[in-house]
Amino acid sequence: MTVDYALLNEQMEALAQSEGWYVALFANASALLWETLPDINWAGFYTVDGPGLVLGPFQGKVACIRIPREKGVCGAALRENRTQLVPDVHVFPGHIACDSASQSEIVIPLRDRRGRAAAVLDIDSPVLNRFSEQDRQGLEAFAHIIEKSMKGLTPMEKTIYLAGGCFWGCQKYFDLMDGVTETEVGYANGEAKNPTYEQVKHGAGHAETVRVVYDPARLPLRELLERYFQVIDPTAVNHQGEDFGIQYRTGIYYTDPADAPTVTAALQDLSRRYDKPLAVENQPLQAVENQPLQNFFSAEEYHQKYLEKNPNGYCHIHFD
Hints:
The chain is α+β, with helices and mostly antiparallel strands.
């Protein structure tokens, strides 16, 4: 039986126009696939949850609830962020047999606005080599319709800028936190525009800073700040660890005025734990004169993810 993907996708377009919430969207999409595709025994979705995938709406038999990123066809689609068309699942490395009747499978990642896999569409068949190139193209178009419409799955991300001494270790520290989705090291709140590392090192007035993008539903700002406090000496003036200079000062620089009360309250609570005054700056990310951009400039590429590139590099933060 040949699937009329033009009709299938027209139906999906109509469903997507009436409801964009991802749970409802995935539920109707699963039902539509179940009713339309011949020779399948499972159709549904897994969504990204922390390091792996968690079961979403589907049609078919009871399924695996969680799938690690490093296992199975779904895990491969998540890791590689591309469609996995598998003629025989039993020879696929790391295959997870949620249903022993499944013989072939196609898994298509659904991407968020940054192009990262946020969920996967998973369809199984009890027939070997069930899915063709035509199926892949038609189902990728089907998935794209869902991507354009889905709401609520992509995290509501926020950004804050944290200076904590040498930014190499700080970036790695934040990268390890569940709920942090992106980091970048750079130079903040100095006088010069687009400074080089050499200018910063010789007193341009900037602080070595990490731009931290995070999901407040998974990592509230107050918790993020508490974890930041754990790796700094908040009373040290212009130094952290063995690093000395104005570029190694500590600071919390926010862009959303609604974050100011949280930052202030967190620092007030922190001050009660110390006999000396705090040296942590608390201020907005300043504007640069005659320039619409905020006063944060990305550091040179060799500084980005430095400790991943140089595992034995110096760091004032201990990770053991």
